[in-house]
Amino acid sequence: MTPLTPDQIVELRAELERLLARLERSMRVTDEALAPVQLDQTAVGRLSRMDSLQNQSLTKNLAERERAQLASILAALDRIEAGTYGLCVDCGEPQPFGRLYVVPDAATCAGCGT
Description:
Blueprint: H1 6-33, H2 46-82, H3 97-102
Helix pairs in contact: 1-2
C-alpha cells in the first residue's frame, strides 16, 4: 500500500494532471512542426535547406522525449489508481513525498534510479 496520505495523493494527482495537460498542448505544437517541409528549391539556398533539415531532426527528438514523458505520466496515474503510487517499482520501498513533489512521475526511488 502507498505510504502517502490521501491529501498528498490528491495534490500529486493534480500536479500529474497539470503536467499531462501542458504536455498534450506541447505535443500538438510539436506535431505541427513535424509536418513535411516544402522547400522551393529555386528560392531557398543550401544553408536554409540544411537549417530546415536540422530543425526537423531536433523536432523529432523532442517528439520522442514527449512520448516518453507521456508514458511516464500515464503510468504514474495508473499507479495511483492501482494504489501503488509512491512505491518504487523496482524495490518496492516507499518514495518520500518530497521526491514525488519534485518529480511526480518518478517510478523508482533515488537508490534504484530515476
